[in-house]
Amino acid sequence: ILIRYSPKWSILEIVRLLKQLTTYRMWQKHNEYLSQHFWKERAFWSDGYFSCSIGNVSKEIILKYIQEQGR
Fold first, then answer.
1. Alpha carbons 18 and 34: distance in angstroms, whole number
2. What is the total count of domains within the chain?
3. Most buried one in 6, 8, 11, 19, CB count within 10 A?
4. 5: CB partners within 8 A, 6+ apart
5. What are the two backbone dihedrals, phi and then psi, of residue 5, each rounded to the nearest 5 degrees?
6. Whole-prediction pTM value?
7. 2 lies in some domain
8. Which domain holds residue 25?
């Protein structure tokens, strides 16, 4: 995920919010299916995360890097 954010937010706050919102929305949209597989906890995400800043690299290079992940 490539995002631009205000310096008033910490990376931890952004990651926490993204994890909370995506988990909530997934359960909201797919509750019946997910209940069959996630009967103990309603969690999708691990506790950790990785982040880095792009520094002097262009946005286009970062987007290409992201798009090629997993190939």
1. 19
2. 1
3. 19
4. 14
5. -140, 160
6. 0.68
7. no
8. 11-40+48-67
